[in-house]
Amino acid sequence: MATETSNAAPVDKEDNWGYDLYPERRGEAPKAKWWQVAFFGDGRNTLDRTECEKNVYYCFQNSPLVKLMHSALKASGCEIDLRRHIACEVCDVKVSGGYDPQLNQVVVCQNVARSAGMVQGILVHEMIHMFDACKHQLDLKNIHHLACTEIRAANLTHCSFVSAWAQGDASPFRIKQQHAECVKTKAIGSVIAVRPDVTKEEARTAVEKVFQKCYNDLEPIGRRVRRNSPDMIRAFNERVNYGYE
Ligand SMILES: [Zn+2]
């Protein structure tokens, strides 16, 4: 469920739920490291938060994909209130965002996600987890459920952007294969990012087991979106087909 920034495995083996990656979730404000205080001063976190909240607000106003996910959630009976369900926080630099199933909140990592484009990617990814939690009784403690929702998030967002960049001379068959490989790799990375107790092999086995079913489930976006293509707008315009306003 975390949107990870690197392939590095998280360090804390005792925290099965990855909350160590989100220090503010544990009710304590993360202490600034000496170099952060030395170079940026204490005001840095406040500035980051304001900037992050501005980007979140911008995405909810302007991003067709975020707006689509917003209406999809509403149509499924899980309406989002920006102040209640989206939180900008300081996170471990290994992750850029996350979904907290207990509080039903999306976390945007203000210290990592510094552009509207990046915030958009995080919001859509985590809102897919939120959608699955709302609509499909997602149990994130079940590794197959976790693998499935990570496959769906990678499939509908990240990998579709990446495959578009590689499209130039590749054959359609190869693109399809590359896309599926991208989704697998990304989903395995996300599973081990939030479940440090799971090995890469266990994550791979879980992803393979549910892959076909979850890869083919394109709800609620309805298509694999290519970056800077009319797909984004098209998906938003077709939302009525799925019963969203
Ligand atoms: Zn995720």
From TrEMBL:
GO terms for biological process: mitochondrial protein processing; mitochondrial proton-transporting ATP synthase complex assembly. Its EC number is 3.4.24.-. One of its GO terms (cellular component) is mitochondrion. The keyword Hydrolase applies. Keywords: Hydrolase, Metal-binding, Metalloprotease, Protease. It comes from the Eukaryota. Belongs to the peptidase M76 family. This is Mitochondrial inner membrane protease ATP23. It comes from Moina brachiata.
